[in-house]
Design goal:
This protein has 108 residues and is mostly helical. The chain is 65% helix and 6% strand.
């Protein structure tokens, strides 16, 4: 099973009607995963040969950090679209609190 099939199966399990919207998102996630794998092979820190105490982050480390942030945001968006946040279908505590207040009094 390819990575794309895995991600699409997550969407199909949730019964999401947004499959067309998520198809592009799945492609973006796969693209980012491939680039992250390539960046992992590069050095992230350059050490000064004369003074090993001096170290500098490489452009690869900066790109990795930025891509990882985009990757995490894409996954969060995918979970929101499919209705599964953090792998569960629970409501947030704030939404529960708000529903309790509006259902009891009706004028909140």
């Amino acid at each position: 099973m390819t990575r794309k099939e895995q991600l699409l199966s997550i969407i199909n399990k949730s019964g999401s009607e947004n499959e067309a919207k998520t198809a592009q998102l799945v492609d973006e996630i796969i693209f980012i995963e491939e680039n992250l794998a390539k960046l992992k092979e590069l050095p992230f820190i350059v050490v000064n040969s004369k003074n090993p105490g001096i170290q500098k982050a490489t452009p690869a480390s900066k790109q990795y950090k930025e891509l990882l942030q985009q990757y995490n945001n894409c996954l969060r968006l995918l979970f929101r679209i499919t209705g599964e946040m953090d792998g569960t279908k629970e409501e947030s505590p704030l939404r529960k609190w708000l529903k309790e207040r509006t259902d009891d009094k009706g004028d909140f």
